[in-house]
Write a structure and sequence with these properties.
This protein has a single domain, classed as NAD(P)-binding Rossmann-like Domain (Rossmann fold). The protein is built from 8 helices and 7 strands. Strands 3-2-1-4-5-6-7 form a 7-stranded parallel beta sheet, sandwiched between helices. The chain starts with 13 loop residues before the first helix and ends with a helix.
Length: about 270
């Protein structure tokens, strides 16, 4: 932070000034994380706080008890499908340096049995919610000529996965959106990045939906689905919440223009062959 005190420009101070500038970039930045009530978002909030950042953890139903008590953590209500909620959250948060679009809902099952009304709900959160949050923060980033948007998608974008057609579509849309947007915002020194988590059985992915998986597997699909669910129950590699938090942290802090950050050993393996 600028203390207002003048600094004499002498050669011997240049190394010191570089250290100060680097500290300014990493020590007191502010991150806003959507979907921070559990899973990746909660662990990412904890990680950024541990790294010394100010954290704005947003969730539909605020719960302050799930995060450390700290003056550097604020918990705000946010529904990414509501323009009024987005406006209120960003007004309450004040200027931010990084937006992490993590909020999302899952859907697993045969597409034939998935109501299009539910597919639209998935897109409202996973796709249009990400776009709405991003569009809302771009003006402050553009005007300051600094800032970053990190969009959390999924390893389903790295290789086709069965029984996840609607979910995959919602995440693939964000992959294309992010890649294109990264080009146009680079003109304003604003970066846009992707974090692609692998399969994380310890998260609430399967529960974070209005529809039961069993209701989305018609009898005709049962022979096809059974071995797939058996493989899900005994995966060779899995992703943890900490893997994703680490990838988000690297994306925010490594200073590179890298676009994609696979998160978790299974996602990394898929990225290598995709």
């Amino acid at each position: 932070m600028n203390t207002g005190r003048p600094i004499v420009d002498r050669p011997e101070t240049h190394g010191y000034l570089s250290i100060i500038e680097n500290a300014k970039e990493t020590a007191m930045n502010t991150v806003l994380i959507t979907g921070a009530s559990s899973g990746y978002g909660l662990e990412t909030a904890r990680r950024f706080h541990a790294e010394g950042w100010n954290v704005i953890a947003t969730m539909r139903t605020p719960r302050a008890d799930i995060l450390p008590r700290s003056e550097r953590i604020r918990v705000l209500p946010l529904d990414v499908t509501s323009p009024d909620s987005i406006d209120a959250a960003l007004e309450a948060s004040g200027p931010i340096d990084v937006l992490v679009n993590n909020a999302g809902i899952g859907v697993v099952g045969a597409f034939e049995a998935t109501p299009l009304s539910h597919v639209r709900k998935v897109f409202e959160t996973n796709t249009f919610g990400v776009m709405a949050m991003t569009q809302a923060v771009i003006p402050q980033f553009r005007q300051r000529r600094s800032g970053m948007v990190i969009n959390v998608t999924s390893s389903v974008t790295l290789a086709p996965m069965p029984l996840a057609a609607a979910y995959t579509a919602s995440k693939m849309a964000i992959e294309g959106f992010t890649g294109s947007l990264a080009h146009e915002l680079a003109a304003f020194n604003v970066r846009v990045k992707l974090v692609e988590p692998g399969y994380a059985p310890t998260t609430r992915f399967a529960q974070n939906t209005e529809l039961r998986i069993a209701d989305l597997i018609p009898e005709a699909y049962a022979p096809f689905a059974q071995p797939i669910f058996a493989a899900f129950a005994a995966p060779a590699m899995v992703t943890t919440e900490a893997d994703v938090a680490d990838a988000v942290w690297r994306a925010a802090s490594d200073g590179s223009a890298q676009l994609r950050y696979p998160a978790g050993p299974d996602a990394v393996a898929l990225a290598r062959v995709s």
